[in-house]
Amino acid sequence: MAGETQFAYRMRLPNSCSEASGELFGRSRYRDGSTEINPDALGQAQWRHYGTSTPSYRGLFSAREILMKRVIAFTDGACSGNPGPGGWGVILRSGEHEREIYGGEADTTNNRMELTAAIQALQALREACEVELTTDSTYVKNGITQWLHKWKSNGWKTAAKKPVKNQDLWEQLEAQTARHVVDWQWVKGHSGHPDNERADALANLGMTEVKEG
To answer: φ, ψ for residue 98 (rounded to 5)?
Structure first.
């Protein structure tokens, strides 16, 4: 625009977007054997460049979005018997850093474990982050992106006027999603995707540990 000075700017992303305590996960464990993620474990400081613009365009990026660090998450759930013992698994990745967490419950369902995996992935991030979360559950992805608003508007009833199953977990997932900017992705389960297969293995590990007591 005429009369306005062109400028370039960049914002430094925080080191410590991700920190988790073993208390948050119960039976969860990390691949390195620890029960905590170091505050800097999921990535070093990065620079995000937005090129040139004019001062009037600063509103295109909110302060919250500019300061967010990018995290990639893969989640999966497993259950034996459905209902029965089950487990959940999560891979968190930022830059060159990666952590794996998992857990399980003695009496649950596959859908509950899929939901729990997504909740735990987002809960593990102590600060607001830009998260690309991939699940192989259409129940989770469609529920959080399409159905949730309708369920709440209907008093937590489905279109068939029946109570929404797993309302407690949907409420937790909604709360965790509100803390971040989440891009929900879906991948077909057991299709050879390496990260999905690894998340599945973690979920089965959590389930196995529950079975063995």
So the answer is: -145, 145
- Say which CATH architecture domain 7-212 belongs to: 2-Layer Sandwich (3.30)
Question: For this structure, is 168 an active site residue?
Answer: no
| pLDDT for the residue numbered 189 | 94
The one catalytic residue among 104, 130, 136, 206: 136
Question: Domains of the chain: which residue ranges?
Answer: 7-212
In a 3-state reduction of DSSP, which class is residue 41?
coil
127 is catalytic: no
Catalytic residue among 43, 77, 87, 206: 77
Write out pLDDT tens, residues 119-128.
999 999 989 9
Of the candidates 76, 100, 105, 130, the residue annotated as catalytic is 76
CA 150/CA 146 separation, integer angstroms: 8
User: Range with the lowest mean pLDDT among 33-37, 94-98, 164-168?
Assistant: 33-37
Structure confidence at residue 66 (pLDDT):
56
CA 60 to chain CA centroid, Å, is 25
CA-CA-CA-CA torsion sign (195, 128, 18, 207): negative
The pTM of the full predicted model, rounded to 2 decimals, is 0.73
